[in-house]
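[job 4471] stage=fold_predict status=RUNNING
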Amino acid sequence: MKKRSATQAFDQYLDGLCEVLGHADRAAGLTGYCRALMQPLERKSVEPLAAYLDPRHVRARHQALHHFVAKSEWSDTAVLERVRAQVLSRLDVSKAVYWIVDDTGFPKKGRHSVGVTRQYCGQLGKQDNCQVAVSVSLATAEASVPVAWQLYLPQAWADDAARRERAGVPQEMTFATKPEIALRQMQQAAAAGLPVGTVLADAAYGTNTAWRDALVTMELRYAVSVVASVGVWASPQRPVPPAPRSGKGRPAVRHRRDADHQPVSVKALAHTVAARRWRTVKWREGSNATLVSRFAAVRVRAAQGDRLRPEEWLLIEWPRGDAEPLRYWLSNLPANTSLKTLVTTAKARWRIERDYQELKQEFGLDHYEGRGWRGFHHHATLCIAAYGFLVSERLAGRGQKKRYQRPKPAVPENFVPRGTPTRSAPRAKLHHDAPVATGTRHHRAATATGSSSTTVFMTQ
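[job 4471] inference complete, writing structure tokens
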């Protein structure tokens, strides 16, 4: 059987996505948008995409793409379901599976883009004017892909009816914290029958005791970062048992603390771990070298609240030679879990960073310039759709030496799409005394930049 080309595979993939758009007229918008996202354009907002797809009719194509992404009422959820089905068909979920929770920021100027406010932006590493979206990625050791995506709507936006209406925020969208959004996304993932994974998250989520409790209620395993100040009970230290029953009323259930019974911070506990318990662990091959560090794991009970909580793992990373520990994780993986497995699991969160890096740098996730709720989510869904195809093709070609090549429609040799650096006009044959032609210059220029249907390939 003849092997499909990259272009044929991409066309078939896009056809599957078009089936869930709800109207046949929307197919051209999705296929055009996704094809343009696959190209090496400097900017991937609507206008540069339109200029690339149809340089002779930029305005008309821009209007069509803008309507498709900002106004058309197709379902992001339905498209993302098709994307994850494509990736899952090639993902080996017989081994370790992870649900990676994270959020990412989009720096913005002004105050009119939906969800914009002054808040922490991970991309900038500080508080600034930005939008923030929460996502859950399905991951294995081989690959990952976002399966849920939602803009965080700050309280100021959630309570402002006028701004909500202008930005098209759905009425059912009320204020929810980022951890609450992530929990809802995981509940929906579980209801959809996705392979259940160990939940990984940074300290913004993992330090939240109620959030970890909710994961336990959902019967999910987790390995989440926590801050150094989190309090724990380490054996043999425990809180004072509940007061004995006095003979009246219900038995006391609250554990107590006194001068001799106080929890310790995970940082303080790390300094008391015996030297024999520290091990050097290698967890994966990095781009330049094997990733290795020093770790210890201790059984502890989280000290939040007045109940005696279940035992779980505290994983500590303290690189040799450093004055202080570097990171801490709490995990409810089984008590017989090896240190190597704990480290490999906790460190698997790097894949969400890879997702965001490629989605932003290669697919223009942060290039959308519209202000509305629908457009923000539609653009992100289409970026994830294009990325999902790339992930699935990488999985299909696992073990091959030749790298996957993206399908790329050919354009005229001298065409420079909008959004790329301009080039100087050639001056070798400039004649200062030559007469200037009139009336047909722009017509000829437009004709010269006509597009071709021929397909060539570009190495990723």
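[job 4471] summary: The longest helix spans residues 373-396.
[job 4471] exit 0
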